[in-house]
Design a protein that fits this description.
334 residues; alpha/beta; seven-stranded parallel sheet; two-stranded antiparallel ribbon; 43% helix; 9% strand; globular
């Protein structure tokens, strides 16, 4: 070891702190976040700038606030596991007593069974998400999403209800719009876990799950009618049937990614409650306040990067910005 003009002392506190920090870094959740950020960071920024522009052009778009939705009835969130097919008749029987919140992947199956949801929740920005949203979606159904979500969503005429996430730009905007740290945490890194966070944000008393299992059943990873079918069908032939396209997270036992999501739901204030635990108590009671609550959107327009001179700049140089997204993101760090 070379001679140094100084001496490094390993103070016991920092020796222990280093061990704790190292253990935290090596957690599966941390690795999952790093992999997700590495894969999506360019797409998030690209979608963010485009979607915010489209958001302001849609007069029916709003920012999600605790007053956006008043609901006294239970929320049932539908995932797209094969179990949703078994529970579809139960959902139909309960339809007039529940607020039905559908994941984007379960939307196709619900619509094919004449069971339109009260709202749609979408998170994934990837290209495959567009296949969940056909041209036959009723235009009156609100879509809950975030600015970095799928661009296809913001091209639809449906009302968009924008929520803030832990994405850096979202954190900054939420502080500007809500004057507080009102962004939604997603400890399970999954859309079902996000449904939990939204329910807590809105002050919902009961949340139940249908079609959420994180496991394949009988060789199927999802129910019929999802956008995954439309996405993979053109690629199938007699050598590559549809059931051969199985995501890594559904091969074998519960993956570490899905294990994190499952634990997050189980440890939430609602727990993992299924339809057989739901007690029907009269007609569904809820009210959207999107028409009257426009302050969040106006405040977002004032604070957003695409208002005023920024908007003119982005409109004229959008392509160049996308090509240099990493540089732009570095300049926008807070």
């Amino acid at each position: 070891m070379p001679d140094l003009p100084f001496q490094v002392l390993a103070i016991p506190y920092y020796r222990k702190k280093f061990a704790r920090e190292l253990a935290e870094i090596l957690k599966p959740e941390t690795k999952l976040d790093q992999n997700t950020d590495s894969h999506f960071h360019r797409l998030w920024l690209r979608n963010y700038l485009i979607n915010l522009n489209l958001f302001f052009k849609n007069p029916k778009s709003r920012v999600l606030t605790p007053k956006s939705l008043e609901i006294k009835s239970p929320i049932v969130f539908t995932g797209a596991s094969p179990g949703l097919e078994r529970e579809i008749e139960t959902l139909k029987n309960l339809r007039n007593s529940i607020f039905l919140l559908a994941s984007d992947s379960s939307l196709g199956f619900l619509l094919k069974n004449n069971l339109p949801p009260d709202a749609i929740l979408s998170l994934d920005p990837g290209r495959g998400t567009a296949f969940h949203f056909s041209d036959h979606i009723p235009e009156t159904i609100p879509i809950l999403t975030w600015a970095g979500g799928s661009r296809r969503i913001f091209e639809l005429p449906n009302p968009k209800v924008l929520f803030f996430t832990s994405y850096p730009l979202d954190q900054w905007l939420s502080a500007q719009v809500m004057n507080s740290e009102s962004y939604l945490e997603n400890p399970g890194r999954n859309i079902a876990s996000l449904a939990v966070s939204i329910s807590e944000f809105l002050g919902v008393s009961q949340l139940f799950f249908s079609g959420v299992s994180f496991l394949s059943e009988g060789g199927k990873t999802h129910c019929r009618g999802t956008g995954y079918e439309s996405y993979f069908l053109p690629q199938t032939d007699r050598f590559h049937p549809l059931d051969s396209y199985v995501p890594v997270t559904y091969r074998g036992k519960l993956s570490s990614k899905n294990e994190i999501a499952k634990k997050a739901i189980q440890s939430s204030r609602y727990g993992w409650k299924t339809l057989d635990q739901l007690e029907v108590r009269g007609e569904v009671e809820f009210r959207w306040n999107l028409e009257s609550d426009n302050r969040g959107k106006e405040s977002l327009w004032t604070s957003t990067l695409i208002s005023g001179k920024w908007k003119q700049f982005l409109d004229s140089r959008m392509e160049q910005i996308f090509k240099n997204s990493e540089d732009l993101f570095a300049r926008l760090r807070f």
